[in-house]
Amino acid sequence: ATPNPWWTNAVVYQIYPRSFQDTNGDGFGDIKGITSRLDYLADLGVDVLWLSPVYKSPQDDNGYDISDYQDIDPLFGTLADMDELIAEAHQRGLKIVMDLVVNHTSDEHAWFQASKNPNDPHADWYWWRPARPGTTPGTPGAEPNQWGSYFGGSAWEYCPERGEYFFHQFSKKQPDLNWENPAVRRAVYDMMNWWLDRGVDGFRMDVITLISKRTDKNGKLPGEVGSEIPDGPVGEEGYSSPNPFCADGPRQDEFLAEMRREVFDGRSGFMTVGEAPGITPARNEHITDPANGELDMLFLFEHVDFDCDGTKWKPRPLDLPRLKQIMAGYQTAVAGVGWASLFDGNHDQPRVVSRWGDDTTDEARVRSAKALALMLHMHRGTPYVYQGEELGMTNAHFTRLDQYRDLESLNAYRQRVEEAHVQSAESMLAGIAARGRDNSRTPMQWDDSTYAGFTTPDAAVEPWIAVNDNHVTINAAAATADPHSVYAFYQQLIALRHNNPIVAAGSWKLIDADDEHIYAFVRALDGERLLTVVNLSGGTVTLPHDTAELVADGVTEPDVVIATHSASHAVVSLANNELDPWEGIVIRL
Ligand code: TEU
Ligand code: CA
């Protein structure tokens, strides 16, 4: 068989530049800050750095609203800074993956500005539609259909200059590009080739599974007057959802295969990962099957969408058997061909140690962070470490609305509490505190100084979002000096993957699927077998049946490969047939 591509054995580290390291005292992280921290990242052992967007942007959605794909926003620095980062990273054997946001642009992009003129060549580069017949354009009810935006309000914004509405799944400053137009696709591919020629090593592709929209044979969108496709049901906030008609649409495979041919064919050493809301495990297998020439891997979302009551603003505690079932679905689908990404944190998710672990005491936080990391990294696939996860950084625990910055949270509060009246202020504030995206966007905690070393202590301005007070104990300076830190454990996990092909490539089999506290599975490759068993609870638990049988089958002294507490503690735990709170162990069978 052909050797597995390099990225099947790699670990990717996601940097949110705005919150990573500020070097010019303006309270915002910047590219020079990333360059200044490359040794820390190389020491951690990761292979790839994925940067959230640093392109020119009005920053309406923190850079996911791009106004010039081929220039760097002054907030982050210059193209020369980017070239320096690429060179310095490559010198350390680190690859740089950029965030490709091409489902939409900023409304301040030259393409959109030109598109407002119906006679301009860019007129058809976005989704423009007239007001519903018989209505007054720009007034409620005149929108082409009832779709709502993920960031609140209608997904249609009226443009008086053009006298029509444009479609935006996200904010009104993020108009969706019209991928049906080959000129749009050509421009995207040219830009991608420009970055690859500049030395970047691939892309994380923002909501790339939303680019193909479902229309009827006359090009009419669902719910448009005269469309053969009815719109979906109206939800509690007064809008229908674009998702059923835009996720994994009819030309998804065609567009991805065309992109592969036009951009990546003939190149080597790159990787691509698509952010894939609305994709099933079976579709993940198809899209990541190398024979189909589409993408290397995808981020699926069911495992970070299920622990709530119909909306992320109504969180529910972790149902571990359900999580195991979802993860098993991911793993099984790509057991033959295709590949999996492994993540439970990113700039859109709350901190995993606060979500599925226990951040109420330092000991529980360190132990549960290690247990969650062991569980994730021992799966088959490519792991993604989100900045600060390796320190066991926690949610912000903000208590007031004015502490938040994210338009998703602020718009949702207004829409759900003040407009649709479907959630109380108290319940919504609790929901944002638990699941808001700002939880993972507070500044990286480098040391115990005033602003955690994120910005210069004498900075003239506060950081753009508050530093978490717990930086005095949770920070990289302390962690890198402590052999028992979460950071040290991530180093061990990453080294284990690099030195043992079974971790990246071995088969994966869940055991004791119904156990409510223990996550256990077996990896196997060429006769070698590893058992991973993790207690994802704060109580002492007995080993479930199949796991206990496998442990008993081993030699008297189990061969401990890695353990969250210690190898000696692991031996005692397994001999007693029980695990301490948050204890995770891998043994060679
Ligand atoms: O996220 C798309 C997306 O699905 C998120 O909006 C996620 O579903 C939501 O935040 C969870 O509640 C990508 C980027 O990662 C995100 O930061 C951008 O805001 C969004 O696309 C628009 O570009
Ligand atoms: Ca700065």
TrEMBL record:
CDD domains: AmyAc_SI_OligoGlu_DGase. The keyword Chloroplast does not apply. The keyword Hydrolase applies. GO terms for biological process: oligosaccharide catabolic process. Pfam families: Alpha-amylase (PF00128). Residues 14-441 form the Glycosyl hydrolase family 13 catalytic domain. GO terms for molecular function: alpha-amylase activity. InterPro entries: GH (IPR017853), GH13_cat_dom (IPR006047), Glyco_hydro_b (IPR013780), O16G_dom_2 (IPR045857). Keywords: Glycosidase, Hydrolase. Belongs to the glycosyl hydrolase 13 family. This is Alpha-amylase. The lineage of its organism: Bacteria, Bacillati, Actinomycetota, Actinomycetes, Bifidobacteriales.
